[in-house]
Design a protein that fits this description.
Number of strands: 26
EC number: 2.7.4.1
Keywords: ATP-binding, Kinase, Magnesium, Metal-binding, Nucleotide-binding, Phosphoprotein, Transferase
Radius of gyration: 28 Å
Function: Catalyzes the reversible transfer of the terminal phosphate of ATP to form a long-chain polyphosphate (polyP).
Cofactor: Mg(2+)
Enzyme class: transferase
Mean pLDDT: 90
Low-confidence stretches: 235-258
Structural class: alpha/beta
Oligomer: single chain
Strand content: 15-25%
Amino acid sequence: MTLDSYHVDKELSWLSFNERVLQEAADKSVPIIERVRFLGIFSSNLDEFYQVRFADVKRRIIIDEERGVESHAKELLSKIQAKVVKLNQDFDHLYNDILLEMARRHIFLVNERQLSDHQAQWLKRYFRSNILPYITPIMLNKDVDVLSFLKDAYSYLAVQLKKEGEEPKYALIEIPTDELERFVKVPEPKGKRQRKTIILLDNIIRLCLDQIFSGFFDYDTVEAYAMKMTRDAEYDLTNEVEHSLLENMSESLDQRLTALPVRFVYQRDMPPEMVSKLIQVLKISDYDSVLPGARYHNFRDFIGFPNVGRKYLENPPLPPFESADFQLQNNAFEAIRERDILLYYPYHTFRHMTELVRQASFDPKVRSIRINVYRVAKNSRIINSMIDAANNGKRVTVVVELQARFDEEANIEWSRVLTDAGVKVVFGTPGLKIHSKLCLISRREDGVLRDYGHIGTGNFHEKTARIYTDFALFTADQQLTSEIRKVFDFIENPYRPVKFNHLIVSPRNSRRRMYKLIEREIEHAQAKRKAGITLKVNNLVDKGLVNLLYKASNEGVKIRIIVRGMCSLVPGVKGVSQNIKAISIVDRFLEHPRVFAFENGGERDMYISSADWMTRNIDNRIEVGAPIRDPRLKDRIMEILEIQFSDRAKARVIDKSMSNAYVKRGNKKKIRSQTEIYDYLKHVERQELKNAEKLQHDTPPVKG
């Protein structure tokens, strides 16, 4: 049997990851409002799956058909469809269970048929004043090209107007969630203050259909049914030389807006003739996913479901804390110059990063700032500091990744704002995404330039830094900062030869370096020296790396893996991967960092990186991994990983069956790693402050 037999299709592995998200919604130990929000995360994930991964499988089928070859993708598509149907059924049952559980907590999510007369009248007035101005039905007739305006992954109401003896008329109404909140709190009658009633915007529109159509159309009955369409999110970049990347990306976004659908979800009691009409106007093919569903679609809005009840119905806050290393110095530069600093978001506050660039923006010693951004917050303090720095006469370069999927439009706008402010904006090369998380600040100190660098696993994004776990290394190590400078030069001149001795940089040396590090562990194992590999990644699907891990396992290298999402590797197979164990952790924070640790005969090497172990990240993107050199920080990262491997609350076993079984607790303490890590790091920071205070107290004053 070939090693290819031990590679799980990444699409099926991805659906298995989303099933773990659904497990969190099903977990009764999770506060009920958080369970509702996990339904929203599951739905949002599934939208992106169809936009990207399902669409890719569909394209592979079409290409294989055009080439006249047998397509494995057809069989894969069938497996995907079956799995999605099962997940959607589980979702529907779970949603109903959660509604009942919320009702026990006196929170009622109602539809338009469950209102009192008083509430219905209040909502009709509310609709006329607050919602009707945003409603414009689109009538479905031969003069209307639905695909030219229908928004991707938005929820719509498909409306049927019927009059005796006439053909029914059809219309589409967009649920205007861009302008309005999807959840509306309905007033309670006197004496029922404990009860909280919420209604979806969709159902308010259903209640008030007559206000929309009456006087314009003659009908006996009007009915509305939910539907949603998902488009292929890929796009083609034009190869015309005279087009800039900015122009190409703008055109490509227009292509996405008119891309053909890959999924059509409709309310299961929608009349068959209406379903047929919509399939026709949406140009749904035999390879697209057509799914009957429940009364509501676009559950991604449920990520923001409001807690109208008691505080205990959602997770207790874990407020981020400050790093002692930064606290103990007068400014960020003094702190970083003292020693390398490692932050772990969202446990540490992201304010240290925003404060670093704020200080750099006006510090008279700072000469230049270079940063690359992939995704940033809507009101980004990072970007504002870049503009402030330019206004203060600093040389500022911002590398903006225009190809960051689903953030392209925002990044195009940011690039224009920055350019207008006098910032040098660099876009990189089409087809070579810049996914590294770098910042380099040059400062004149004692007559020479000194560089301060940041290398991270996550984006410079204030919002995601509160919900994603990520490492950020701040360093003044000139070996590392000189190579960060080389990366920025490489981004601007990707075809100029460049060598990296310390950083692992895709696509320059990542595959070679990763292979070499794994092969070194094999040599240590063969020589009976200490050998082992510990990995933490989002995705592990690159065949070359997976096969080399199989080889290492067979040579006796002990391998432990924490993988959040896709995992093509199959652990625990005798003769293939018997020395490999893998888990996945899904909890209140999204696990996002990449860490690679190699035992190296007892002299452990450790790296943090922006790169997952996917072919695209190793060969087709600009990614950066940095060695952790400070033994103190190595130990800290390893302690965090050990806590995660000891998780007995949120860790699932990764295996060939993709059953997502929880790691068995046995007689061990029930450890929930994310809260355990919070307590561990908080203790570390307190201890650092105490040690500094003791040192200051014990150090005698210097005599004049």
